[in-house]
Design brief:
This protein has about 400 residues and is of the alpha+beta class. The protein is built from eleven helices and 22 strands. It is elongated.
Length: about 400
């Protein structure tokens, strides 16, 4: 593998042309492998970073543990060092240290050699396809492919001049900062959405009189009914269809599972507005972050792993959707084979839910729809910015003889 990589590098250098001011450098010429090992019990640092604390494609380290929680020798890092997940590097985990600490030995601590490379430029270079594709090509091992320093150190990469490094780093840090602002906006929108859901589904709008119920205090004008009393559970409309059969039934009508659309078929069994609530699976444990319900309308199909619910005379279907969307229903779940969680129909029918008057349901549904839309708008903005940031990084860090410095 190393010989073929070297031959490929030579061919690239001989047949390709680098932009003016760019040159090839071995990785060890511009980056240092900081391999200082420490025992967690013999260090005074307060931060431990494991690979589980690093997010894919993100330089920001948002989580960490304590040295008291781990055993075995770890690697020491300092402010400004890069913590690179050398094990399973295809996950593209790279974090920029904002404090001193220790990290997993399955990481590699990389420090810029500032006489050769700009320290602000190096994080983006290591995130780039130019680096990552080479790193993956020299990984060893099948189950958990790992990058070794003794091989990585000899790899040659194209680098721009110091002046262009600074210009590229400035542009990418502006983009990175904007991405982080959108991440904060997205998180604020998520918190606001969840707060609105909790408030309006429990307190309603403008009430001063409350009653005590099995669900806690709710407005005095509301009722409590079991789902079986106020809704129809239309599981008779479900139909399990295996993948091979579905492949011969391709068409325009969605085929839903418990958490989303699995396929599209040429026939439908369900028509109208319904709520789908998963029957089994571990998604129940992720109710804070995952939607427990889907609101579906039109013509569609449902497999046998989701309950099909329709509101009745007292309850709008959309009210049921919002009420269960991020609801913790673990107390109603049973364990079945291999410990898998299951929400049985008989249990579902007994789950109580608050029932406001129709006019108040309409107001609350509209408010919650707006909260959801605001959050999704923030999510879409963030997703778009991440794509643009990645595209900008690759455009600036991929050698192009036709690009001039004025483009940065």
């Amino acid at each position: 593998m190393a010989n073929s990589t070297a031959q490929s590098e030579a061919a690239t250098r001989n047949n390709g042309k680098l932009p003016s001011g760019w040159s090839y450098c071995r990785f060890e010429e511009f980056a240092q492998n900081v391999a200082e090992r420490v025992d967690p019990l013999d260090t005074d640092v307060k931060v431990y970073i494991g690979l589980e604390h690093l997010d894919c494609e993100s330089l920001k380290i948002r989580r960490w543990g304590s040295p008291d929680d781990v055993i075995g020798q770890k690697l020491k890092f300092a402010v400004g060092d890069l913590i690179f997940g050398r094990r399973r590097a295809y996950q593209r985990k790279l974090g920029l240290a904002e404090t001193d600490g220790i990290c997993s030995a399955h990481a590699m601590v990389i420090r810029a050699k500032v006489d050769v490379i700009d320290s602000e430029f190096l994080p983006f270079f290591i995130q780039s396809d130019v680096f990552m594709e080479r790193a993956l090509s020299i990984s060893v091992g099948s189950l958990s492919p790992t990058i070794n320093w003794k091989t990585l150190r000899h790899q040659e990469f194209p680098l721009p001049s110091r002046d262009e490094q600074r210009r590229i780093a400035k542009a990418l840090w502006l983009s990175e900062d904007y991405t982080r602002k959108l991440e904060a906006t997205c998180e604020a929108a998520r918190i606001a959405r969840n707060t609105c859901h909790r408030h309006f589904l429990r307190n309603g709008t403008g009430h001063s009189d409350f009653q005590t119920t099995p669900l806690g205090k709710i407005p005095s004008s509301w009722k409590v009914e079991s789902l079986g009393e106020c809704c129809e559970i239309a599981n008779r409309l479900r139909k399990p269809i295996n993948a091979a059969t579905r492949a011969e039934m391709q068409g325009p009508y969605p085929y839903h599972g418990p958490t989303g659309v699995l396929d599209h078929l040429n026939e439908y069994r369900v028509e109208g507005e319904y709520v789908l609530l998963g029957e089994d699976g571990d998604h129940f444990l992720k109710y804070n972050d995952w939607n427990m319900t889907q609101f579906v309308s039109g013509r569609f199909n449902v497999n046998n792993h989701a309950h099909i619910i329709k509101g009745g005379d007292d309850v709008y279907t959309k009210w049921v959707f919002h009420y269960f969307k991020h609801r913790n229903i673990k107390p109603y779940l049973a364990r079945q084979g291999a410990g898998r969680l299951k929400l049985k129909k008989a249990t579902l029918e007994k789950i109580p839910l608050p029932v406001p008057p129709h006019d108040e349901q309409e107001i609350i549904i509209r408010l919650l729809d707006e909260c959801d839309a605001a959050h999704m708008d923030a999510v879409h903005q963030l997703e778009t910015q991440r794509l643009l940031h990645s595209a900008l990084r690759e455009a600036l860090l991929t050698p192009d003889p036709e690009r001039g410095a004025e483009c940065v």
